[in-house]
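Good morning,

Both structures are done.
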Amino acid sequence: DLTAAATLTIGAGTTLRFAAASSLSIGATSARGALVAVGTPSQPISFVSSAVTPTPGIWSGITFNSLTEDATSRLEHCLVSHGGIASGAPVRLFGASPTIKSCTIQNSAGRGVQGSISTDLVSPLIQNNQFLGNALFDVEISSASAAVVTGNTFQHAVTFDTDGTHAVTNNTFQNYNNAAFNARVAPGAVAGMNTNTFQGTGAASRVEIISGTLVNDALWSDLAFPYSVLGNVTVAKDAASSSTLTIQAGTTLPFASAAGLFIGTAPARGGLLAVGVPADPIVFTSSSATPAPGQ
């Protein structure tokens, strides 16, 4: 009910096999729920298909709904395999923020973890997981989010579509040379991107920056490949004090059509410190392959 949660606890070493299109749902629109699935390195908990030869997306997945008890719900040392029916995700967060830690999430027909728009922030801890063989982004969150994404190994990166206070740090991005799977973050998360390891970079490598406002001081580091600024970025704190964006020498910032960088607003103060050197200038340019003046 709404006053107390029902909690499902799954013991280490347990294997749950799901029939085609079946799922596990935590919480509901009018009742609270929690899932505690904590395995160990030698005895993981497995959420897998019951099929002898499973295919990606053969079963639906684990859904944490908005009445999930976030503080107690966790997946830890779990294997989640072959979920994500209809290009969904084997781990879905509808306004929920559980802990997902030290898990392997693999062979999804869609995303690995998907957080959807809700009146509640989707702000999970996603830590030390391995994502393998998922068809779309390994982590995709479509809401303002304070998610902490750290220590993971990605094949298909992580993407956010709304400004927020999320952080993406100390992850390993493998084979990072696919324009379809560049990491996409809010302006406030860019400062942490230099803590990640990008393997196999090349001409298609970017970190994409969505529209948003920097209300705190930030340093955007040279990642040895360009960023891609997709929308307007504003640097502004409040009328009494300023936030400052510092851009490291050698950084390249291509901007999408009509996108821009705005320092300060009518009521709020902001600053920009962009100091290159002759050998490593800072480049503000168009992301177009054939740029035109004023693009």
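Second structure follows.
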Amino acid sequence: QSDPYVVRLPPYRRVSGVVLQSGGEPVANALVRIGIQPVEYRDSTAPVGGVVASDEQGHFTLVVPSQVGCTLIAFNGEYTSTAVTIDAGDEAPASVELRMLDGATSEIRGRVFLASGGPAEGAQISSRSGHVQRLSEDASVLRGPSTALADADGAFQLTGLQDETYVLTAWDASSTGRRHPSAKVIAAAGATDVELRLPAWGSVVATAQQANGLPVANVSVMLTLTSTSAAQPKNRSTWMKNSEGKVRFDGVVVGTYEARLSANGYKFVTFPLVIKSAGEVVDTGVHVLEAKD
């Protein structure tokens, strides 16, 4: 019989390496971290991730997961390094080499537009999820992040790039729409006319009640996209911790969905949902959840 007070930590390993300048000189006090944290470890108690500083010889040791792969990246306050992928497995690689991109001088310029056609002031051209990433035959080597914010005219400028090809994605600057990137655009360093367009999105409101009319607490809703949209992930979910049985789901890209409303101890219900235009708030009304046997 298992001990309920014993915490099972996900397996992990220690990876060592060195941070070097583009010319091969060691970089001291560079901050090394996991560039993309695996979902399985984000809320775990395992000592995975964090940030470590390289020593005077540029050496570092970082704890990384064993069961899934991850990427390592270094920063020195001014430049970022190439990102190196560590594959899943119990064995740590012999050594990891992270080279700083301190010789990058190219740039990419362009504009970000709202779905309505107006400028997307404050939109972020991000290095995460919509990263500016190197297109390489070796998928394990990615160029480091380069980010920018669009000005009042939607114009942006990405600097410090290598002379190669990149994938650009813009993100809505608002807190509710930030999860929704534009479609990815491929551009070469030196481009001056890149256009990124943010998707249109609205909101969904739903209320969950018991058969006796009392509210169902801690309601969650999952949306499954049934129409085609390149900018929207197929499945999205949210969870509202409240005692009123109400849930509001902001930032839903225009499209057709199947919605699933559920709560602990109750059978879920599904219903169709359509967001037709930007800014639309669709109130799906009251949904009765039947208690599980």
